[in-house]
Structure formats: structure tokens, C-alpha cells
Amino acid sequence: MQAANPELAFEVANSTDFNIEGSVSPMKPLDTWGNHTISTSKRGVDVLNNPYLNKGQAFTSEERASLQLCGYLPNNVSTLEEQIEMVQSLFDARDAGISQYRFAMSIASENLTLFHAWIKKYFERVAPAIYTPAVGDACLKYGENTQPLNGLYFTPEFKGLFDKIISSWDEKDVEVVVVTDGGRILGLGDLGSNGMPIPVGKLALYTALAGIRPEKTLPIMLDVGTNNVALRESGSYQGWSNSRLGGREYYELVDELILSIKTKWPNCLIQFEDFSSSQAWILLDAYIGKTCCFNDDIQGTGAVVTAGILNALRIVGSTQKKSLQELLRSGKYIIVGGGSAGYGVCLAIWNMILSECELISEEQASNNLFVMDTKGVLPIERAIGDKKPLRFIAKDFSNKEQSMGVTKDDKLIDVIRKVKPCGIIGLTGTPGMFSEEIVREMSKINEEPIIFPLSNPTDKAECTFNQALEWSAGKCLFGSGSPFNPVSYDGALRQSSQTNNMYIFPGVGLAAVLSRSKGITNKMFAIASKVLAYSISDAQLCATRCLFPGLNKVRDISCSIALEVMREMNAAGLSQLSMDEQNKLSLKYVRERMYTPLYPKISPRL
Predict the structure, then answer these.
(1) What is the rounded radius of gyration, in angstroms, for the C-alpha atoms of the chain?
(2) Which residue of the set 42, 55, 120, 202 is catalytic?
(3) Predicted local distance difference test score (pLDDT) of residue 388
(4) pLDDT tens-digit profile of 166-205?
(5) Are 148-275 and 297-575 the same fold in CATH?
(6) Whole-prediction pTM value?
(7) Active-site option among 101, 131, 206, 343
(8) Least confident of 2-16, 156-170, 314-328, 496-510
(9) Cβ atoms within 10 Å of 29's Cβ, excluding its own
């Protein structure tokens, strides 16, 4: 694969219809849209119907005249700020959930600059609508859409044509692709092509939190069918209506897709999202050493969970006057859920123990972790097939020291009583899994139990924030995948900690884009995890008991993560930056290259 020319023109989708004056290298500071002039051959309603060009009432009088927009718009000229406030007012007037999600997507389909400027300003309030938990409902009801989401859809019928479909996409320099096959959407299971809102939502977060320009992103649905018979036969299903493809045929399609993407966009980052557990780790293992890619469910989840654990232990250490190393060496964790996210969490915690603790063996680190699936604690004899990656922590029940007396028939409450873990992490998609008995038992064992019900969306969480507080007498250190409202407890308003991958993947992705990296390693996610954890001071952690900063801080955190990950990319020999560029790396360097949504000036092109 040839390397892309580093001096690429600043381009946008449908570039044959308009262009931007001047050429901007991705490795030089990017001016915002507001400092550029777009020239376009479009006129009148064609301008208004293009979401990359449309400004609505923000077109100036001069632009209205030159672009033949007179008579197409009300008289008043609005500013972008005025439009943002109007959109937020209309958004607030809608019911939370699918109604707000559909409103947000309607803005994106009409005016992308306004959409991203609005998200950037009101991210904390808008995030639940454009991503979890509302995106789960959007997937379930995707068949009700009269207009499919913008992106590319590949089915087995297009085999052999993937390169032509990719080549037909107008953008000459896509930087980030998020691809899913809909095999395991959040905690909702196999939704097939109904999963398209997931990559669309992830890429909206890339723009909001990492400053990746929206026209440089591409959501892809690898539609290989669904084994969800009720969905497939519902009459509203819009995807390839067949049983899910598997085996060699499936992997050949994935390979064709990856090759087609990398042939057109050699420096593009590929993010795998919501693939079934049986395929997620196989695909990651197949491509991680060959191209710039990662699996967010495995690596992103692992990184954000270890950041949450690290901060929880900092609070416990302050209370109990114990060192972080001491707590990591002795602490046991039960991961409930043996899928791809469970694997990612186990591997990340295991690596954290080994890296933070001196003179501890891999076996000792493994003994601190217990993973459970629907059949109980994973034994060595079941660590095969899709469970094979978990073999390093699977238990030999005949080894009492390793298994701590746990048997194959033990339920979660039995394992807790025998293992006496400091934390339980839920990745099951089963509400109520962390029952009152479970949380109360954890609170008997620990002064400050770590309770992480991480399943998405909110109604799939293993317990609620209110339940965890009540059953632990307010002592728990809580983290959830989806947001929970603040809870008044013991005279104080307690804030929930959202343990979501959005804290991690935008910064890692930004580093890959800016470095034109040849690959991404697990070590880079470990670095991102520590940057996230230490973005909060000890004093703030102990005062608020919130394990993560507010969502309004994520863009700054992404910048910090990108900087440290870029330094590791340089050290690992994966960066394509020149030595001069590597020597200039700083927060300022990264921040200057993050897109800020502002309206460009638009002029007619003859």
C-alpha cells in the first residue's frame, strides 16, 4: 500500500461540486471553516440541500445574492450562535430519547456545521440523545426511518465490488472509518443493519471530542444478515434479510472491505465496533499488526474501566492509608460477562497490575481476576472457541489456591463470598444482575466497594445508581456505561460516574490521524487510561467521589491523550511524522489541528 501524500488539499465531500481556496496540510495548523472561502458551482435550492454548504438563515446578504438564494430564505440574517441557541431550545422542548435523537439527526442532515457547533457547545446535555442511551432505541426503531443514515452499506451480494463502492465515495482523504456488522449492538444483541446508528454516533463524537472534520469520517455497515429472526421477519427490517453469514465467506468479506478501504485511504484509521464476541477478537488479532485499527469494545472498554478502577483505588487508598501498589496487588475483581468487552477489561486490568506492581508474576495477576458467564466462573476446560482469549485467567478448580475454593456450580453471590473481591464489573446486558443481596454483600466485605454496572443502554444496566447507593449505605464507588441522574442521598446530591469509552477512543483516534500511524497497540490504550485517570486530582476525587471528569472536559482530555499517545507512536516507530514534527509535539500543536465548526464564506464558482 502506498503512503498518502502528506501535502493534501483540504477537501470536503462532493468535492467535484465545490472547493476551498488554499491548500492545508493535515500536519500544519488547521484554520477553522470560518477562515476559509468555499467556491461552489451550486446555486439556489441545491446549496440549501447540501448539508456541507447550508447555513440556513446565516447566509449573508452578499452570499444570498451571489448564490441565487434571494427569495429562498426569510429576510433576517442569523449568526451561528443565534442558531445554536434556537436549536437547543427546540431540542429541550422534545421528550428525552428517540424524539431528541431524531431531531438531532434532522439537524445533521440539513446543516452539518450547525449540528457540530451545537454539540460542541452543549455536549453534556446533547450526548445522551446522540449516543447512549438514546442510540439504542434508534437502533431498535431504525426500520421506521424513511431516510437511511448517511454512510456505506455492504452486503454479500456486492462481493468483488467493494473497491468500486469505496472508490465512488467522493471524499479523497477519509481519516476515520467506524465499521460494524451489527452482531452485538450495545446490550441489545444481534440487530443486523439496524446497528448503523452506532458508527454514525461514534463519528459524531470524533468530531465533537477530537476535532476530526466530519467530511473526513465514514460510517460503514457490513450487512451480513441477522440471526434475530423476529427482527428479520418483522416487515420493517431494511437490511439483507438472511441468516447471518459466517465462516470463511464472512472473513473473506471483511478482508475485501479492509483492503478496499486501505487501498483508497492508506492512512485511514479503522475502528471495529459492536461485532459479535466470537468474531471481535479474531478480527482484532488478524489486523492489529497489519494496519492502523482497534476494537473499541475490547480496547476502549478496557482502558476506561482501568481508569475508573485506578481512581476508585486512589479514593480507597486515601481512606485506608494504603498505597496504590498494595491495593492493586491484593485486590480481586469479578468480571461478569465473558464477551469481547469482558475480555478487554480482563486484559487491561491484568496489564495494569503487572505494570504498576513490582515483583508480581503473570500467574499472580491472573489469580486476582475471575470472569463469569452464564455458566458460572470460566474454567480452563471451557476456555476454547470464542472464550479462548480468556484462557489466561480461566480457573483450574482442582487448584484451590488459584480458584479460592470456587466451584463450577457457584452463583455470583457464592463467588463473592469466597473470593471477597474489591470490585464487580457487569457486562451482561441483564438488568438486576447486581441485586440488593449482591451489593450488600460487597459492602460487608469492603468499606468502599467498587460497583460498575456497565451494560448499555441504561435499562440494561446491572443495577441503578440509586440502588447501589441505597444498598451500600452510600459507600459504593460507582461507574455505569450509560448516564444516571444525580441522586439525593443523606442530605447531599451525589453524581454518577459514566464509565464510557467516549473518554478514550476520540483521543487515541486523533493521535492516529495526526501521526498517520501505521498501527495502534495495547500500550497506547494503557497510556490513554492513565492520562484520563490523572486528569482528576486526589482532592477532587475524594471530595466528589466521581471517578471521571464532567463531559464538558472530554475534548481537553482527548487533546492530552492524543499528545501522549503520539509520543508513544513515535517511540514505537509507528508514526509517519518527520523528526522536525515529532520534536514540535505539544498540547498547542495538537489543539491547533482540531477542527472547530464555524461557517466558511461561500462564493460562486462559474
Answers:
(1) 24
(2) 202
(3) 84
(4) 999 989 999 999 999 999 999 899 999 999 999 999 999 9
(5) yes
(6) 0.92
(7) 131
(8) 2-16
(9) 12
Q: Tell whether the model's pLDDT for residue 121 goes beyond 90.
A: yes
CATH of region 297-575? 3.40.50.720
Compute the distance between CA of residue 66 and CA of residue 311 in angstroms, rounded to an integer. 57
Q: Give the dihedral sign, CA 454/460/462/466.
A: positive
Helix (H) or strand (E) holding 161: none
Q: In this structure, which CATH number among 3.40.50.10380, 3.40.47.10, 3.30.70.270, 3.40.50.360 belongs to the domain 148-275?
A: 3.40.50.10380
* Ranges of each domain in the chain: 148-275, 297-575
> Is 370:421 a contact under the CB 8 Å cutoff?
yes
Name the β-bridge partners of 70. Answer: none
Segment 7-30, tens digit of pLDDT: 222 222 233 344 444 333 344 554
Q: What DSSP string describes 271-325?
A: EE-S--HHHHHHHHHHHTTTSSEEEIIIIIHHHHHHHHHHHHHHHHHHHHT--HH
Whether residue 72 lies in the annotated active site: no
Query: Across 344-486, where does the E strand assignment appear?
Result: 369-373, 376-377, 423-426, 450-453, 477-478
28 assigned to active site:
no
| 236's grid cell | 420493517
What does the DSSP 8-state code read for residue 159?
T
